[in-house]
Each structure stands twice: as C-alpha cells, then as structure tokens.
Amino acid sequence: MIWTTVFLGGLCVFHFALTLRAEISNSPWGRTMTLSRSQTPPRHRRDTSTSTGTSTPSRGPAFTSCWLPVTPTEHKILDDNTQETGFNGDDGSYVILTWVGDGTGVILVLSTISGPLNAYLAGGSSRLYRSTDYGKSFHDISHRINHTFIKEEFGVSVGPGSSVILTADTHIVDNPGGIIFTSMDAGATFKFIQLPFHLAQPITYHFFNPDYLVALSIDGGLWLSLDFGAKWTKVHNGVHSFSWGAGINLFFSCSRVDAVEAEERGDLALKRTKDLGKTFTIIHEDIFSFGYIGAFLFFSVMEDPRSPRVMYFSSDQGDTFSQALLPSASTEQ
C-alpha cells in the first residue's frame, strides 16, 4: 500500500488510496491522530530488513485540494508550508500519528498490521517512523525497538517534556509480564523494560513529573513507578479505576471484598494515598464511580437502594465533600 502525509503548516492530512476512519485525541502533552482502513486486505509478514519511509514524492493518488476559495497570497503561504512524505510499500492498516513535546518538531508515526493470532505468532509487526522537522521528512526507526510489534489500542503514549512510552503487543500466556519501551528524548533512543504484570489500560503519567507512572494490571493490581518505569511496586489489589489528583495525591476505587460486579452494585470504596502508596485513606464507601476534573473530585453513591444514586464533590482532595445539587439520575450524565 502507498500512503502519504501532507503537512499544511501545523496541520497534518493523511491521504490514502483506501477509505479511512480517523480519530483525534488530545492530551496535556501532545496530539494523537489514529487512522484505520475500513476494509483490511490479506495480511503478510513484513520484511523488516529495509526502511520504507522516504521524503520523495509518493506515486500514490494525487492530493486533492479543498474547494474553498483561496487568494493568491494564501496559495503562496500554503505552497511554502506544505510538505509531502511518501511511505511506499508500507502495508499497515492501522496508523497512529503523535506529536511529541512542545515545539520539538518531533512526530512519531506507528503503522501496524492488524492480523489474526497466528499472524502475530509468525512475526506480525509494526513500523515506527520519526520526524524531527515537523513532518517534512520521516525515518524508519523500527530497529531502535528491535522491530517489536507495538499495540494498536494504546501503543504510543506521550507525557510531560519529551517522554514517550511504547507498549508491546505481548501474549499473556507466553510471557510473565508486558513489555514497554521508554524514551526521555522524544524517541531518539529507547530503553527496553520487562514489566512484572500485564497492562489492562494505558500507563498514566503524573501531570508534571514524567518519572511518576501509575498502571493497572489485568488482575486489578495498582502499580507505581517512581523512575519512569524502570522499577514497579504493587501498592493495592482489587482496583477498578484510578486518577491522579493535585500534587502526588492518587485516587482509586477498589472492591472491599473480592466480589464479582462490585462496580455495578455500587460496592466500591474510594481511597486516596498522599504518599505514593505507603498509606491509604478511605474517602467514601458504596460508590459506583468517580472522576477528577480540574481541582474537583466527583463520586456517585447509592445511599438508599430504593432511590437513585447521588453525586458528591470535593474541592480539597477528598478531605471534605458536599452533595451536588443535581436532578436525580440513575446513571452519571
């Protein structure tokens, strides 16, 4: 397959020969664009011995300009700020483009083959490209991660500064834990790390300190790292969800007993640790769910089985809380 990236100033436009589904998400540290083909052709194992990212014009379909009227001055601005990079021969059906850092000019592109299980076992792979000039040119840096197959769902995560985490697609049965690659220099170099657990969701960065990471394992364990993933410590079991608060406050909901569907029944306890997992405080019991937005902590509680749940909020990291004056609702809206 042939695909191209066209950069119009700070805007990136992917141009594919096939129909794509695109999703754009934003984080405090970068913007991510995910594209996938609506229909996937037969998969074949990639040849990882050569690099395919080039800065030469693509032989794919010609780029079609927009229909909005453009003045001659605007035409010149577009011409002076438009670059096209061709990825000839790349057969990835799932593409993730991520801006790294603020003003670094670094963009990472992950292209993966979404194949069946036997394709993974046979060496199904992904390709990782890196640009240091705002997308004018890309270089295949797959060798920096040993051509490891990176997850599609949450394979690339960017954090404060120029930190990047890549999560490998590993099999639970064959491996004691997951594999990640970490970088503190926007992908110029990567460090291989074997995790003592398998991730259930993306690793979460602290808001300001990239060394502080928190993760949830598939068996409900809450894990913390204080050195950017080099070492991990399990701090709690039976965790359902978590969120960083102000400073180093960490909130999480957990089952009071190892019960099935505790979240659906509102049988969770909301806890907080102010010292990175050394001690814990119970903020409230019998909660359904919680969230932390801005400086406010929210959680819903079933106080009476015969009545709808109620919502509480706190502006002091859970030390005190008040009931929100909201219309009654059976679910959070």
From TrEMBL:
Q: Which residues form the signal peptide?
A: 1-19
Q: Look up the domain of life of the source.
A: Eukaryota
Please list the residue ranges that the record marks as compositionally biased, kind Polar residues.
31-41
What InterPro entries does this protein's entry cite? Sortilin_N, VPS10-sortilin, WD40/YVTN_repeat-like_dom_sf
- Keyword annotations of the record: Repeat, Signal
**Pfam families per UniProt:** Sortilin-Vps10 (PF15902)
Q: Where is the Sortilin N-terminal domain?
A: 127-329
* Spans annotated as Disordered: 31-61
Task: Output the SUPFAM superfamilies linked to this UniProt entry.
Answer: Oligoxyloglucan reducing end-specific cellobiohydrolase
Task: State where composition is biased (Low complexity).
Answer: 49-59
Protein name per Swiss-Prot or TrEMBL: Sortilin N-terminal domain-containing protein
